[in-house]
Structures are given as structure tokens and as C-alpha cells.
Design a protein that fits this description.
Elements (H helix, E strand, L loop, with lengths): L1 E4 L21 E6 L5 H10 L11 E6 L1 E4 L8 E3 L2 E3 L4 E4 L11
Antiparallel strand pairs: 1-2, 2-3, 4-7, 5-6
């Protein structure tokens, strides 16, 4: 499983990338490696609320400026921002300054 994020939370409770921020110029890839068992996945999902999933051996967080995902198989599910997309190569790149965030 791979999540690419540019914010710490992926929803109101899931702290996927605690050190991530919208102005850091990076995507943060949270990887759960294929060696993870079902029990490992359960532990990771339960630990996401506190960010403790990053302490598990089969979970990695990698900072990148760009990524290219090339699925090895045509079967499967690929989602981008919650929307199902056609399985195939996918690229993402950080565009610093491409948006303005106004806060109170």
C-alpha cells in the first residue's frame, strides 16, 4: 500500500505523516511493505491515529519531490484523492507556490 500526501492527516483522525506540511515542498510516501501480514496491517491501521504506525518495521515514510508509480499488474484498484482511476502509470510532482493558503 502506498499513500502520497502533502498534509499530515488524510482525514479527521488519521495522522499519516506527522512531520508533513503543505509548504515543505515534498510529498510524503507512506509505504506498507508487501511482507506485512494481516495482523501487521491491523496494527498499522490502529496506530495511524497517533502516528505510531511509523514505529512498525514494515511501514516506511519517504520524502520525495516527485514520483512515478508503474503497477506490475493490470488488475487491482488505484485511487487518486478518493477517486478510482484506471490502473496504469501515474506521476505526481510538487509545484511549490502553485497555490495560496489563507488561514485565520
Amino acid at each position: 500500500m502506498i499513500h502520497a500526501v502533502n498534509l499530515p492527516f488524510i482525514d479527521s483522525k488519521s495522522l499519516l505523516a506527522p512531520a508533513c506540511g503543505p509548504a515543505d515542498g515534498r510529498l510524503h510516501l507512506c509505504l506498507i511493505r508487501k511482507e506485512a501480514t494481516k495482523a501487521d496491517l491491523l496494527k498499522a491501521f490502529l496506530a495511524i491515529e497517533t502516528g505510531d504506525h511509523l514505529k512498525l518495521n514494515h511501514v516506511d515514510l519517504i520524502e520525495v519531490k516527485a514520483l512515478r508509480l508503474e503497477p506490475l499488474e493490470e488488475d487491482g484498484v488505484l485511487t487518486v484523492d478518493g477517486e478510482v482511476v484506471e490502473v496504469g502509470p501515474l506521476q505526481a510532482v510538487v509545484l511549490p507556490g502553485a497555490t495560496t493558503i489563507i488561514t485565520k
